Amino acid sequence: MIDPIAAPPRSATGRRRRPWRGPARALVIAVLVAVEIVPLLWLVLSSFKSQAEFVNGPAWSLPSSWGFGNYVDAWTTGRIGLYIRNSLLATAPSLVLIVLLGVAAGFALEVMVWRGRHQVLLVFLLGIMVPSQMILLPLFRIYLQAGLSGTLWPLIITYTATGLPLTVFMMATYFRAVPREILEAATIDGAGILGVFWRIAFPLARNAVLTVALVQFFFIWNDLLVSLTFTTDDDLRTVQVGLLNFTGQYGEVAYGPLFAAISVNVFGALVLYLLINQRIMKGLTDGAVKG
Description:
Blueprint: H1 21-46, H2 51-56, H3 69-76, H4 80-110, H5 117-128, H6 136-146, H7 153-176, H8 180-188, H9 193-204, H10 206-221, H11 225-230, H12 239-242, H13 255-288
């Protein structure tokens, strides 16, 4: 006899099945995907529109033509290629310095034993709390008196200094979880402190290094305030500051070339993120497999 008020069926794990969970999960995923994809789709469609279509047409209308005139204007008249090169020249050295100095400082503060290391780590933590807006004016005067104005060195130095506190804190936290037996075994085998760092500690921290480099890359690449403050020459502007050049003398915006330049910037960074993200996932997978 069938009980009309019987409990709902249970799964193999003993939990009650809820038929609404599958559609609800699919709906949430669809909404999240739409939130990510729809703005990118609108950005790409807008990069092919003419100025008249932006002014007179609806926002979601399709472009009348699919030519690459806006991308040509962004690359030639808008000089987006020059600004991307400047961003790369400012970002690459900053990342190298942040990674090398940050990993070395994290190793020295957490693995090596010396007096005052906890106080030094506290100083780095205090550096995270200092707003970048407070140091722009003093740094501008220092760079001007040192003769560094008119170069990319103010950007490189500032990005390195502002990126080190978080990097040192993250790397010190990571080295805290590294088994000391591994480092002690290398010391017993005759490796010096530099050998332990380069041959053992740094390879062990490769996943953390990639994560820190990814975070710092997007922080530096998307910066506007520091670059706008220290780049007085148009030939030294980074890509974020260079996008301001698409505004005319009387506030008129060249929407087509502007959206084309933004598309180049966004999708270039997106491709780089996907490549680095795959490297991080591959490193995590390799580290989880015993060989």
